[in-house]
Design brief:
The complex is a heteropentamer, with one copy of chain A, two copies of chain B and two copies of chain C. Chain A is α/β, with parallel strands linked by helices. Chain A is built from 13 helices and ten strands. In chain A, strands 2-1-3-10-4 form a five-stranded mixed beta sheet, sandwiched between helices. In chain A, helix 2 crosses helix 10 and helix 10 runs antiparallel to helix 11. Chain B is 44% helix and 20% strand. Chain B has ten helices and nine strands. The relative contact order of chain B is 0.14. By secondary structure, chain C is an all-alpha fold. In chain C, helix 4 packs across helix 7, helix 6 packs across helix 7 and helix 6 crosses helix 9. The N terminus and C terminus of chain C are likely disordered. Classes of the chains: A alpha/beta, B alpha/beta, C mainly alpha. Chains B and C meet through loops of B and helix 1 of C. The structure holds adenosine-5'-triphosphate (2 copies) and magnesium ion (2 copies). Chains C, D: One of its GO terms (cellular component) is plasma membrane. Chains C, D: Its main location: membrane. Chains C, D: One of its GO terms (molecular function) is ATP binding. Chains C, D: It is a multi-pass membrane protein. Chains C, D: Pfam families: BPD_transp_1.
Chain lengths: 316, 296, 286, 286, 296
């Protein structure tokens, strides 16, 4: 892919591909994991193909920013957390959220068992590993007095956390606790969402321009995506094996653990009633207001521009 | 006023034009200068050289060299002989005064031709080139037929007695052999003006004599002008048409001896009384100089 | 360089000694600074134009003006970050230089030592910092100390590699002189090999000084900031997460300016050290 | 080195020509390999002991045996990762070498060019990769191309810096020779400056080859793996998250071994190139 | 059997022991050898040197040098003079045969003493050291009082006429001046064995004569042994107690001329018929050699 092409150019190029199927690219927010189960399910089961799409899922990584890649037109769809999609607004990147994979945020603080951390105030006096710039940390600092926290950079390692019994690290409840268990390090977690900061996670998005001019493709994609997740609920373990093929360094058991723990976030909560991918204006507005308050958003705007449920299948 | 300009070697047009302008300039000052300029291969005009260490290497050095002459420079160590030669080659500029080569500043001349060759006081060979390739260097730089160049290089190397060492590297040679490569390199370029800084100092008497004869041969054949630095008074007398004796600190020209022995010179001449006479005169001039300095 | 330096000196000297062909300021200016200035202006205008021409939005390639705005508006953050990074990288570089040269000298003093230990220096260089970061953090604590250690780890190899090369490329005949005079191993080291290796050492330091900045930034990245304030590495991470590309560029440019200043300082030092003899640093007098 | 090489040659030669003081294999072995082997064993045993003595658990500092187990059990993963990283870094290094030397030659050919452009080389070196990663990814796409570019970006500066230094440190009297013979700028470059700069160039390549591996690993970190399979950078990231410290060390050591092999190859090449004249690479005959 | 061993310089105990063992060894072969060994400063025993390029630099070179002798080597360029000298200094090993210095292999001797000094064919100065510091080098390496060392260095530099250039760097010196620094460096170390490879070749006649006289002075005073390479037959005769004439390819010893002129030698001797006689003999020997080669 080259630089100068705007989204529309890429799209027309994409549309011209032979065989009647349209090629689109999806950038994942991380190396393939269970949180991308719906994508791989849709690919594996031929759901995208049935809808006339040929989808390339490009793995993310520590420093890969799907927001930027999609904004630059190098991919049509991306996965990111809701707050990232909102913050991109500051830069004039107009994205539209199409489906929320997880109805809530599995982001959590993980600490050693018996550390007696009940509330966020209890983080004071401890070393906390958080990724510099991660939004919920700003939110928490705004909500609580965390001046006693020694803030350390989170870098994807947990060794230093394990080494220091009183320390706390950011984590996903769907992932890290499993690895700790493997290492016989008993841990507990405290969800960030308990603070009231609960963005949708792993949100499918595209640029506003793209959505406006390629409604049909977007419709096909979102439908397939949701169908993919539906089918993943049935045969998660089988799809996980496919994912291991894409991300050979992760253990199947870890994926299965994730599949289990993320189940409620995907299929439960609001989705239980309203279907997979469901989003509400209220949740988006709350999040937007929270970000506004802590200064991560520079100006107010109507969230209705920011997300749409029009491509989601009608609630059953 | 009619001035006949008869350049003694073939100038290309651009150089001829340079010459013309400098001629026109000098015309304003008087026609004599024109004639002088045209005939001089090298002209030191009141040249002084002060290195930035404060060392006065040359002091009001004034010396014309006519085309086709063979000039030897004699003088104590450190008196500025190398400095003078380097200036002729454009590798140093006078602090005051002027050096001209064929009427031009040497830097200009160098830029336009390949007519000057220099045998440096140390051999100055490229360590990564074999003997043959070192000699080929000036020919390569000038261009021309590769095969002919190689032929030329080999024949000069044969002359200096190194034809068995074509593929040796400088570090595999003895001191005298390195110097001979350097001499071969200079001769291979067939220069009009040959500057040699103690080229034979590292050679034994017999090799030296052979090379002296060869050098004189080439000099005559090619109508070169040679500036030759040596510490050997016999050598100076044997080779030169004129000897410039210099004195030390600051380097001045102390006397000029015209050697009126006929060319071609033969080894036998060395026993000739006239020869000894010149040797004595040159030695005396050197020694006087030394004494004068001591009494000061 | 050799050429133009020679040229210059010739002129300078004519100026000093003969005092006739006075060289006007304008021409010095033209020779020395006009090129870089034109290049800089060209570079800036190209950069200003490219995003517009290619239609790249500012969050992908911000224009110089965007970067300038971001710099001005977040100047206080940037300033603090620069201060911290300077501190970290200067110490890291200092360690690279001292330990690098020290180890090289040690290794060069014995073929067996060199063969036995040098591979570990290469290992230290190639082993990815992320792999050893936890250990570094455990041994040195998160934050400053670890960052300095990582900056050192990244910067020291060029010093060792170059210095060793220099120490081992002593002129043969000078070496023989020392053999003849029955010089002890260390005399040979101090009086021959180290002076002879100077130019190589200095070339190594020049590489290392820019790497030590990269090291400090990477260090903050992998070793965390340890409770203190964050330097450029921290600022860059935050900017990247918040897609503040313009500010990210401000940080990047700040790092680059640091690098250049650092490089110039080390070059100056190198000129001073080599001044007395090495061709590349020497203004020759003809 | 100069010393011991001289020593060796003397002996070798005595051996070849005089054929009397035949040097037994055992003694060559002792001189050449015993040191490194002892050092290696020492290193391994120290490493094996440290975690036990300091009570460091295996997820902090795995013992060599742990690492070995992890390597064996995940060998297929590791092998694939190594293959990919080799590919990326070789291309990155190749670009560093070719572009680095090319640019140096260009810069050295004109003082004005050097003054105008060299600062940007320093900028490219110091600007943190993370800062430019988004652009790199957008221009070259996530994955392979970007990784190669990043590997190049990290590796090319030592080549430029060293080569420039070499090109500018030509012996004055040889330079004069070329002036005298009215050599054109490019003749001087090809026939004088480049051969004279060889040792410096080679020192630069030696540094750059290890850096290019670091670059490939960092590249995967910041530019992602794109559609293709991941190399060591990817393996390290994933291993870190999964707290597979032993495997992480396997990857690190694999990177280090790559680095050493790469270094040795480049050294060999350098010996060949310099063989004909430079002291540091030359077996002298006395 | 009683053998009186009277070492002519003071050996320290360890060296004396080495001497003793080598004496004992030789005792088994015959007492004659012992006496020869003890009195010889340098002994080339059937030395051949083949460089790995295949060049035969020395071929069955057999030559003893007694202590206190002043030996000059004369011979065509590339005949192996430097090679021979370097082997004496332990800077090269014979391919076959043996070189001993005071009865020991030179490498051993070098390890134990500072008694050998070498004036190399090129000046071989450290470019980063000033003239004074270059001369100080061997003294520094040996240790000793700094002030005294400096005094000694300055006085030798004065002798070679460089006291005005103490702080100059080698690149600021003329060719002859560099050589003189190198000579000063060798003399400053007050060696027992002095090896000089064409030390005066780059010097003018007058400086050369002064230094010749100084060298002879020091040689007598310090009871040195000197091996001296030169291409100047006059110089060889004037200085030496013995001249070794070598022939080229492969380097052999072609004749040895004992110069029975009395010491101290004066400049006036050069006009003495005996002097010319020796010069003629040496020259003839060189030339014959050359001719013989040509007829082969
Ligand atoms: N680059 C330099 N910088 C400073 N002084 C110099 C430089 N080159 C030469 N000199 C000084 O200039 C004087 C003349 O030097 P030059 O090399 O011309 O002497 P020379 O006549 O060639 O002597 P020799 O016969 O010993 O070669 C000497 O005193 C020397 O120290
Ligand atoms: N390092 C070397 N490798 C190969 N051959 C060498 C080496 N050094 C010298 N030679 C060869 O050995 C021969 C003798 O060299 P040596 O330097 O001893 O000559 P020399 O008598 O000192 O000559 P000169 O008077 O020219 O200095 C020469 O033919 C030379 O080419
Ligand atoms: Mg001179
Ligand atoms: Mg010799």
């Amino acid at each position: 892919a080259c630089s100068g092409e705007s989204a529309t150019e890429t799209e027309s190029e994409a549309a011209d591909s032979p065989g009647g199927t349209e090629e689109v690219k999806l950038v994942l927010n991380w190396f393939p994991k269970s949180q991308h189960g719906g994508v791989y399910s849709a690919i594996e089961e031929g759901i995208f193909e049935e809808n006339g799409l040929s989808v390339e899922a490009e793995p993310g990584g520590p420093q890969v920013s799907p927001v930027q890649i999609v904004a630059a037109g190098d991919a049509q769809f991306g996965l990111a957390h809701a707050d990232q999609i909102l913050i991109a607004r500051n830069q004039g990147i107009e994205l539209v959220a199409l489906a929320a994979t997880m109805q809530g945020s599995p982001q959590a603080f993980m600490f050693h068992e018996g550390e007696e951390i009940q509330d966020f105030d209890d983080l004071n006096g401890r070393e906390v590993f958080v990724q510099p710039g991660i939004t919920y940390w700003d939110f928490l600092k705004n909500q609580y007095d965390l001046s006693g926290v020694t803030e350390l950079g989170y870098n994807g390692q947990h060794v230093n956390f394990i080494d220091n019994k009183t320390s706390v690290t950011q984590s996903f409840v769907t992932s890290e606790p499993y690895f700790m268990e493997l290492e016989d390090v008993p841990v507990e977690t405290m969800l960030v969402s308990e603070s009231g900061y609960d963005p949708y996670n792993v949100v499918l998005f595209a640029t506003k321009d793209y959505v406006e001019s390629n409604g049909e493709t977007v419709q096909k994609f979102v439908s397939s995506y949701v169908d993919g997740w539906a089918s993943y609920e049935e045969n998660g373990p089988a799809i996980n094996e496919v994912i291991v093929g894409e991300n050979p360094n992760i253990a199947l058991e870890a994926l299965n653990f994730e599949t289990e723990t993320q189940h409620d976030y995907i299929y439960g909560m609001d989705a239980a009633e309203n279907g997979i991918g469901y989003m509400t204006e209220e949740r988006w507005t709350t999040l937007k207001d929270q970000l506004l308050e802590i200064g991560l958003l520079e100006e107010d705007f109507a969230v209705t521009d920011m997300f749409t449920t029009e491509f989601l299948p009608d609630a059953n | 006023m009619h001035i006949e300009v008869q350049p003694s070697h073939t100038y290309d047009v651009s150089r001829y034009n340079i010459l013309k302008t400098s001629l026109l300039k000098t015309l304003l000052e008087g026609a004599n200068d024109v004639i002088i300029k045209k005939n001089h291969a090298v002209y030191f005009r009141n040249v002084s050289k002060i290195y930035n260490t404060g060392t006065v290497a040359l002091n009001h050095f004034d010396f014309p060299v006519e085309e086709g002459e063979f000039i030897s420079f004699l003088g104590p160590s450190g008196c500025g002989k190398s400095t003078a030669l380097r200036m002729v080659a454009g590798l140093g500029t006078p602090t005051s005064g002027e050096v001209t080569v064929y009427g031009e500043p040497p830097e200009e001349l160098i830029k336009n031709t390949n007519d000057i060759a220099f045998v440096f006081q140390d051999a100055n060979l490229l360590p990564w080139r074999s003997v043959l390739d070192n000699v080929l260097l000036p020919l390569e730089l000038r261009g021309g037929n590769k095969k002919e160049n190689k032929q030329a290089a080999i024949s000069v190397l044969e002359m200096v007695g190194l034809k068995d060492h074509l593929t040796s590297y400088p570090r595999q040679l003895s001191g005298g052999m390195k110097m001979r490569v350097s001499i071969a390199r200079a001769l291979a370029a067939r220069p009009k003006l040959l500057l040699m800084d103690e080229p034979f100092a590292a050679l034994d008497e017999i090799t030296r004599q052979t090379l002296q004869m060869e050098l004189l041969d080439i000099w005559k054949k090619e109508k070169m002008t040679v500036l030759f630095v040596t510490h050997n008074v016999y050598e100076a007398v044997f080779l030169s048409s004129k000897i410039a004796v210099m004195s030390a600190r600051p380097g001045r020209l102390s006397s000029v001896i015209d050697v009126n022995l006929p060319y071609p010179r033969e080894l036998g001449m060395r026993t000739h009384p006239a020869f000894s006479d010149y040797v004595d005169r040159a030695s005396a001039s050197l020694e006087n100089d030394e004494k004068r300095k001591e009494t000061v | 360089m050799a050429m133009s330096e020679v040229e210059m000196t010739k002129k300078q000297q004519a100026l000093v000694a003969a005092g006739k062909k006075q060289k006007p300021f304008a021409s010095t200016f033209k020779e020395l600074y006009l090129g870089p200035i034109i290049a800089f202006i060209l570079f800036l205008s190209l950069w200003q134009m490219i995003p517009s021409v290619l239609g790249l939005p500012h969050y992908i390639l911000p224009k110089p003006t965007d970067v300038w705005e971001a710099t001005v508006s977040d100047w206080s953050l940037l300033q603090e970050a620069i201060r911290i990074t300077i501190f970290e990288s200067v110490i890291g570089f200092f360690l690279s230089a001292v330990i690098g040269i020290g180890v090289s000298v040690l290794l060069a003093s014995s073929k067996i030592l060199e063969r036995s230990i040098y591979p570990y220096a290469i290992i230290l260089q190639t082993i990815p910092v992320v792999a050893v970061a936890p250990i570094v953090v455990i041994w040195f604590g998160a934050g400053f100390n670890s960052i300095v250690v990582i900056s050192f780890l990244i910067g020291f190899f060029p010093v060792i590699s170059n210095t060793l090369m220099g120490l081992n490329s002593v002129d043969k005949s000078m070496d023989e002189l020392f053999t003849l005079y029955n010089a002890s191993k260390w005399q040979r080291m101090w009086k021959l090999r180290i002076p002879a290796a100077m130019p190589y050492m200095m070339a190594g330091l020049k590489i290392s000084c820019t790497l030590s900045i990269v090291g400090a930034i990477v260090g903050e990245y992998v070793a965390g900031i340890g409770g203190g304030n964050g330097g450029l590495g921290y600022a860059i991470t935050v900017a990247a997460i918040q897609v503040k590309t313009s500010f990210l560029f401000s940080c990047g440019i700040a790092a680059a300016i640091l690098g250049i200043s650092f490089y110039l300082l080390v070059s100056l030092f190198s000129k001073m050290m080599l001044g007395s003899w090495h061709e590349s640093a020497m203004k020759s007098d003809k």
